Amino acid sequence: MGSDTPEHNDRKSFEYRLKEVSNEEIISILRYREHFQPHAVKSAIKEAMKRGIITSVDDLEKDDFKPVELPPRSLFPLSANNQQNLAIFKSLCRVFYGFGLLPVILGAFSISEGQMLYGAAYILTGLLVIFITHQLSKHKKVFLSQVLLALNIPAMGYAIFKLTATGNPSTMDMVAAIIIIMVLLYTTFYLNKLTSHFNKPNNEG
Questions:
Q1: What does the pLDDT profile of the chain (205 residues) look like in tens digits?
Q2: Is 87 in a helix, a strand, or coil?
């Protein structure tokens, strides 16, 4: 009956979950093995040997599997697992698609009210943001992430202009503008960091 203890069941559960994860995640566990429970490391080693990632425990002494420290806490965290970084990257790109849609919608309303020039400018700006975001998502070029980063300047300038143009903006308008600007800044800085990470040697996104 001793084999049915919670600890034993946890080990079996962990071994079962390991069968579903990618090779990269197995390698990540091996590299960060000093931060895992001993039974988890043993299970990861067993699974790695089954998959041919390593041929024996001695392979853990190779440079590819030497223990590494956990990355420091950061506002823009990077994972040792590039699949996780890629998932975050794609999520941030989707946020930027949303930012690109806002001026397109605003432009459509402006045109419907007869403001053709403003409407066209809004729509072109939105489409430009969507196009750059699509290219960044596809090619992961640092230059493209820096273009999005640079777009913060006119975006913030426009937000400040619209607020001051109303004469006496409400508290809610100011709070909404600040939140949008902060989300925009965070998204672009994080995208820039991830893109730079993907373009480092041995880091393909």
A1: 445 555 555 666 777 677 788 888 888 888 888 877 888 888 888 888 888 888 888 888 887 777 776 666 788 888 767 778 898 999 999 999 999 999 999 999 999 999 999 899 999 999 999 999 999 999 999 999 999 999 988 888 888 887 787 677 788 878 888 888 899 999 999 999 999 999 987 665 4
A2: helix
Distance of CA 99 to CAs 93, 126, 191, Å?
Answer: 10, 8, 14
* Chain mean position to CA 176: 24
Query: What is the rounded CA–CA span in Å between residue 130 and residue 97?
Result: 5
As a residue count, the chain comes to 205
The structure tokens listed for 108 are 């459509």
Amino acid at 187: T
36 neighbors 45 (Cβ within 8 angstroms): no
Q: How far apart are CA 121 and CA 147, in angstroms?
A: 18
73: left (phi over 0), alpha (psi -120 to 50) or beta: beta
Dist. CA 72–CA 53, nearest whole Å: 27
Within 53-200, strands assigned E span: none
> What b-and-e string marks burial along 162-171, b requiring 16 or more CB atoms within 10 Å of the CB?
ebeeeeeeee
Structure tokens at 18: 């390991």
In angstroms, the CA 34 to CA 152 distance is 41
